[in-house]
Predict the structure.
Amino acid sequence: MSGDSAASGSGRSGDRPERPVGRTSRGRFRWGRPREGGLLRGEVQGSPVIRLFVRWVRRPLLPVMRLWRRNIQLKVVVTTLLMSLGVVLLLGFVVIGQVRNGLLDAKVKASQSQATGGFAVAKQQADEAASGTGEDTSAVDGRSSQSVIQWMSDLVESLSSGGQGAFDVVTLPMGDESGGGRGPRASGHVDPAESVPGNLRDRIDSGTGAAQRYTRIVYSNGVDSQPGLVIGKQVNDPNGDPYQLYYLFPLTQEEKSLSLVKGTLATAGLFVVVLLGAIAWLVVRQVVTPVRMAAGIAERLSAGRLQERMKVTGEDDIARLGEAFNKMAQNLQLKINQLEDLSRMQRRFVSDVSHELRTPLTTVRMAADVIHEAREDFDPVTARSAELLADQIDRFESLLSDLLEISRFDAGAAALEAEPVDLRTVVRRVVGGAEPLAERKGTRIKVVGDQQPVVAEVDARRVERVLRNLVVNAVEHGDGKDVVVKLAVAGGAVAIAVRDYGVGLKPGEATRVFSRFWRADPARARTTGGTGLGLSIALEDARLHGGWLQAWGEPGGGSQFRLTLPRTADEPLRGSPIPLEPRDSRRNRGLDDAGAPHGGGAGEKRATLPAPPADTEGSARSARDPLGPLSAAATPTADPTALPGNGSRVVSRPAAGAPPRGEPAGPAAGDAAPAGAGTDAGAGGPSGTGDVDELDEPDELDGLDGLDDVDGLEGLDGLGDRRGETSRGR
Amino acid sequence: MKGRVLVVDDDTALAEMLGIVLRGEGFEPSFVADGDKALAAFREAKPDLVLLDLMLPGRDGIEVCRLIRAESGVPIVMLTAKSDTVDVVVGLESGADDYIVKPFKPKELVARIRARLRRSEEPAPEQLAIGDLVIDVAGHSVKREGQSIALTPLEFDLLVALARKPWQVFTREVLLEQVWGYRHAADTRLVNVHVQRLRSKVEKDPEKPEIVVTVRGVGYKAGPS
C-alpha cells in the first residue's frame, strides 16, 4: 500500500510539472526570439549560439529541476547520497594514506638496512681487491682496468645474488664520464639509466652520503615496469675511483596490498553510499507518505468531502500529525455542519414566520378590503379610516414580503432559475407596468438599444423585479423629466442602464443607495411609498446572477443605475457594455460642475428649453462666474453636431478642441479628482469603491465600449457624443 | 354562477373570512379544518373547486392534494404562505392547478377561482389532433389509438390551447393568460410544472417529447401531427 502511494506520488509530481514546463519553455522561446534576432543581425555572433546551446542543454533538464523542486524525497535521497559519498571518499583517503605509510615504513627501513649492508660489502670487497692486487697496480695499468671491469661485474652479481630477486643492483659511473670500463651495470635486466631518476644521480654525484628516491623500475627484457625504491651511494672501486652503487627494491608486493585495500575500501564505500541512499529513501518515505496523504486528504476536504480522515497508526510524531489533522477536520466538519444547521434553521424560521405572519395578515387584508368596498355606506370618518387601513395594509404587506425576501438572501436560500431570456421583453413589460406612474408624473420612458435581441441566461422574475425597481425609482426621482432605459450587449455581458435627469445623487450616495432602509432625503415625501429595501433586494438579485448593480449620479444632474449581467450563468463578468457614467453627464460634456446646484439648474433649464445658445451661454457663465478662468476654459459653446437624439434635449457640447481638455479625468471614476473638483470626485469616487467588485472595471470598459453598443448610442446621444466617446476611448 | 367551493384551512378566522368573501361573490363554501378529514369532506361536498391550505394539521396539504387528485380532476387552488420555489413546485407537482400566495386580495382570489371554473362552461363540439392524439373538446377526452388518456381539466385545457394553433409557438406568458386566465404575467413555473405533468401523461417518452415541444428561449408548441 505504501509502495502504491509512493508510486502514485512520484507519478503525480512527475505528471504535474509537464504542463507548466511546456508552457514556460514555449513562453521563453517566444520571448527569446526577437532578442535573438537583434543579436544575430547587429551584435555578437557567438552569444546567441551559446544561448541556444544553453537552452538546448537546459530544456531536458527542466523537468528534472522541476521534479527536484517538488519532490522532497528525491531531494533528501540525493543529498544523502552526495554527503555520504563525500564522507566515504574522505575516509577512504585517510585510511589508504595510513595503510600506505604503514606498509612503506617497514619496507623502507628493511631496504635501508639491506642497502647499508650492501654498500659496506662493496667497500670491503673494493678494499680487499685493492690490497690483493696492490703490487700489480703500478705494473700493468691496462690489465688493472680490465680487472676492475670484471670486478665490478662480479660485484654486481654477488651483491644482487644475496637478495634473491628481492632487489636489484645497479652501478653507474660518476657524473658524465662513461669510459674506463665503468659503464652502467645492472642485475636482473634492469634498465639502469631509466630506472634511476636523474635528480638522485645528481645528488649522489655531489655527496658521499646515501640517498633514496621512489621510482619506477624499468626492465630491458620486456617485463612491465614496477614501482620501487632506489637507494644509492658513492662507492670507490679497487682503484680508488668513485662510482655509484644503487640498490633497487621493487615495491610490487606493497602496491598489491595497497590496491587490495583500495579495492576493499571502494567496494565497502560504494555499498555504504548505496545503502545510505536506500535507507534515506526508506526513512523519508516513512515521513513523506503520511505528509502526501495529508496533502491529498486536505485537498479532498477543501473540495467538500468533509468525512475524509487520515489513517493513524502508532503514537509517533506522524501519528500526532494525523491525529491533529483529523481533529482539525472533525472540528471543521462540526463547524460547517453547525453553520449549515443554523442556516437551515434560519430558513425554516423565516419560512415559519412567513406562514405565521401571513395567515393572519390575509384575514386582515380580506377584512380590510371588504370594509373598504363598503366604505360608501359609512360616515366620512369611518370611510377615511377604512381607506387608511387598506393603504397601510398594502404597505405593511410589501414591507413584509421585502423583509422576507431579504432574509431569504441572508440565509442563502435564494436560488437562481436561469434560462435564456430576451431582456427586451422584460424591459417592455417593466416599462409598460411603469407607464401609469410615469403618466402621473409627466415623465416619458424611452427604451434605447432594443433593435436587436438582448438574450442572456437570467432569472426573468428577478431581473424584472430589479428593473421595475430601477424604473419606478427613476420615474419617482426624475422630477418629471425623461427616463431612458438603455440595453446593450458586448462580450460576455449584457447591461441595462436606467438614466434619469432628476435630483441625482449627492457625493457618497452612489453606494449608500443600496443600503437597507436608506432614504435619499428623510424629509422628502414619498409618493409611491417604497419599503426602503427595493435596491438592497435588487443588489442581491444582481449578485445572485453573478452580476453587478451600480449607481452613478451627480447632484442636480440625475443618476444612472446600471445592471450588468453575464450572458451565460456562471460566467464571470469582466466589464460592462455601458459605461457607468453616462455620456451626457456633466463631466463628460466638459462642464465644470463645481457650482453644481446653480450650474445644474441653468443646465437643466437649457436642456428643456431649446433657447438661443448665446443667451443660455451667458446665463450659464454668470452662474458659474465665481470659478473664473477654470470655468472659462471649459465653458461650452453650442455644438451643432450635438443632435438632440431624444428630440427634446439640447445638450450643450464643448467646442471641437475642448474634449481633450475636458477629458483628462477620463471615464475612470476613480481619478475624477483633477477636473471635477470636489463634488464630481465624490460622485464618481464612491461608485468606484463600491461594494461590487468594480474597482478594476472602468479600464476594461473602454475595451468593451468599442465592441457593439454603437446602435444604442447613436439613437441616444447623436453623432457628437459618439465622437466624444471615440476620442476618449483612444 | 353556481360554484361549490371546499375550503381546507385550519385557520378559523381565515376560513370564516374566506367564507364571507366567497358567499359575497355567490359561491357556496363548505369548510374543513383537518387534513385527515379533508378527503371525506371532499367526497361528501362534491365541490367544483378546492381551496387548499398547504400547512394543515394532520395530513399536510401536499398529501391531501395528491389524494384528491387521485380520484378527481376537480380544480385545486393552493393557498400558500411560501412563495419559495420548492414549496410551490412541490404543490404544483402534487396536482394543484394554480396557487395563490398569502396575503392576497379578495378580488385576486375570486378572479382565480372564476378562471378555474369558467372552463367547464364552454363545451363546443370540436375535434383536434396533436401528434398521434385525438382530442374531443366537447367530450373532454384525449385518445391515442382508441385508448383514452386521463387528464385533469387544466392539463386538458393546456393541451387544447396548444393543439388549436399548432403553427404557433406559445410563450409561457401567453399560456398563463389563455389557460390560467391571468391578466398580467405571473409565475411561469406554473406552466413549466404543468407541461411536465402533461408530458408525463401524453408523451410516449417524456424525455423526448413529441406532443408538447419546447422551443428554447421562447416557449412551447404542439408537435407535428
